[in-house]
Amino acid sequence: MKWVVVLACSACATVNTVCPTGTRLVSEGHPIKHAQYCTSQATTMANLPTPGRGFEGALGIANATMTSGVEGPFTRWHSNGKVAAHGTYVDLGSRSVPDGIWAFWHPSGARAMLGRFREGAPIGCFAQWDEHGAPSTGIVEHGLLREAACVPPSMSAFDAIEKRATATPTVPRADLTFAAFAGGGSFGARNADQYYPSPSLLGALGVTARARLGPLRVGPTAGYRLSGTSGYRSTTAGMNIALGLASPHPQLDLEIALEVGAQRISATAVRATRPGADLLLFWTPAGAAELGAAWRLSDTIEARLALRVDGSPAHDVDAKVMYCTARCEPTVTETWQLGGFTYGASFGFRFVL
């Protein structure tokens, strides 16, 4: 005689979902968990059961009692994108529990179990299959599944559930970030003979659009930088390459990012010992490194904060400068130092598509 522990349900509802009145469809993605379900509360994946707990090994069904507010169809996927379970939750007021017919699949996509729940408790006859497709049945007695010949829910129910639940879950494919940067450090164009010999960075604005290829995120970025010294500004353009990191919370997205590109600096040359001014344009490499965190505010909007260092190694260039007022002075050659680094915090919003 074979016994299998049945604790309650590990997963759970559906793609193409029609939610009950008063609830909304939520789709939550995470490197380890992914589910779609209907809720009237601010329930998050943090409240969902641990995927596969007691399920893959013993073919049991892990505890899936949730905080109240979840009602209606629920689908969960394995981390490899295969459907793990599909069924329905009911809201009992103080908690939400599985109810009705539930179907479960192995990570390979093969069927694993089919059975019925009544207000969170497994009842009656369950059908189950091992990884090789060998079938068996069992009857639930006192929370345990006793292997026995019995008639489980109709296989046509499994067929119908499988048709509804086999679509790949919606996961973020791209993002668009708008951010501001504040910090200290060199603006990037200096000359010791100038009235303002070493301008500093006042702040910057940036926009980044990226494709998401699993944990890798790649796309173009552009920015506008302004100095606290009048007449100094620049524009940047480049490529952002980031790697998503493991997160302790499903609503928190962590990443480390690098940027490489170029910067066009506009600097106004003004000397205290010489009348007039001249507008100079310089090109320098531009790079940056960020450690960022984004908190999900909704299905598509995240608030983002990052620690950032950007700039390039300092190097000297000779510039032809003509100081002009009502008339222009003869051209002189000046040595300007370009590059240097800034550091600070970047903050803004990200739209996840």
Task: Summarize the structure in words.
Helices cover about 5% and strands about 60% of the residues. The protein has 1 helix and 21 strands. Strands 1, 2, 3, 4, 5, 6, 7, 8, 9, 10, 11 and 12 form a 12-stranded antiparallel beta sheet that branches. Strands 13-15-16-17-18-19-20-21 form an 8-stranded antiparallel barrel. The radius of gyration is 30 Å and the shape is rod-shaped. The N terminus is likely disordered.
Please write out the topology:
Elements (H helix, E strand, L loop, with lengths): L2 E3 L18 E6 L4 E6 L26 E2 L2 E8 L5 E9 L3 E4 L1 E6 L5 E8 L2 E9 L5 E7 L2 E4 L7 H11 L8 E12 L3 E2 L10 E13 L2 E12 L5 E13 L6 E20 L2 E23 L4 E21 L10 E21 L1
Quickly describe the structure.
This protein has 353 residues and is mainly β. The protein has one helix at 155-165; strands at 3-5, 24-29, 34-39, 66-67, 70-77, 83-91, 95-98, 100-105, 111-118, 121-129, 135-141, 144-147, 174-185, 189-190, 201-213, 216-227, 233-245, 252-271, 274-296, 301-321, 332-352.
